[in-house]
Amino acid sequence: MAQLSDDCFAFGGTLLAIEDAAALMAAHVPPVRETEKVGLADTLGRVVAHDLRTKVSLPPFDNSAVDGYAVRHADLAADGETRFRIAGRMQAGSRTEASVGAGEAIRIFTGAPMPKGADTVFMQEDCRVDGETVIVPAGLQPGANRRLRGEDIAEGAVALPAGRRLGPQDVALAAAIGCTQIEVRRRPRVAVFSTGDEIVEPGKPLGASALYDANRYLLLALLREMGAEPHDLGILKDDPAELAPALAAAAEGHDLILTSGGVSTGDADHVKAAVEQVGKLVFWRLAIKPGRPVAMGVVRGTAFAGLPGNPVAVFVTFVHVARPLIQRLAGAEATPASALPVRAAFKYRKKKGRREYVRVGLRRGADGVIEAVKHPQDGAGVITSLTETDGLAELLEDRVEVEPGSTVGFLSYAALVG
Predict the structure, then answer these.
(1) What SS3 state is found at 402?
(2) Beta strand pairing status for 391-395 and 407-412?
(3) What is the pLDDT of residue 2?
(4) pTM for the predicted model, two decimal places
(5) Which residue ranges form the domains of the chain, and what is each CATH number?
(6) How many secondary structure helices (H) and strands (E) does the chain include?
């Protein structure tokens, strides 16, 4: 388990930019050290521990990309059709060796090894068969419809680099080069709890002024989506005497402590003070909306991230603070989501100097252009503003307004949590 010192960070400011927070975490939070070998079928979402090199070329031999006829390109007429004698037949998986001589063609099927001497394949629909001969048209380039040995990946090359979080396509590549196991990093262990006297476990009686705990379940789901190993520690009350010992206990056996609520400046916001009792606070305010009160620190050698209490702010700060932190702990390649330009179909004003994330849905305008439509409610506690939209419009620090027809950067929810 990664052990951090309380003074491993150095930041003296009061309001931190997102990139500066990410740089602090990347520089001072090491990946988990433990690795394990996992069977190929169980590697989805895991992070490759060491460069995986292929011991074979892919494809392992020259082969045909189509069903058709393999010929020597040098035998083709300079212009007009060419007639070839059909000298054999090759199918995928065939162990029979074949070769072509002058004026000969081999009937070949997709995936079959290229006959010795042949370098070009005509698609069968472009050819005419006449008895024991085949007539091919003019104009095909040399090497057409032939897949070369190693054109996908050559023997000895890195197939999957260290830090790659394995997707279905990566698992397919590993299978194609013959892997049965991959050495991967241990999943980061994350302790998760919510704070607040008003928070109630779903299914229990809901008293006056109480709310069911949505944040903890949001965080647990996001962590599983990212391939981490979340441990649900439930709900803690706003009791200073209870919070500090709970944080210290959560540090044991975990790589990250992740909380929601209690990091603002209200009289009942005790998480920030509790962290300072048993560890060190690194920063606790970001230049971001929603979600300015975000705490980052170290508790007994374990990284700590305290997110706001409103669900939308929890989501936004998770993807910008917790996500890069978990990627770092997992040893994964940094994969910041890239905002795609879309046309705004809304008017909006913001303060300069902070980055804002506006919940938007996508639609196709009358002219066919994709445009972003702002959700009618801005509140950081409105969960339906997440379920009824497609992603976030990212408004950078220097921008102060959005006019209909202007361009905004769009971040899909899928890109933010993948």
Answers:
(1) strand
(2) antiparallel
(3) 63
(4) 0.86
(5) 18-34+188-329 (3.40.980.10), 38-58+151-185 (3.90.105.10), 63-147 (2.170.190.11), 340-417 (2.40.340.10)
(6) 9, 28
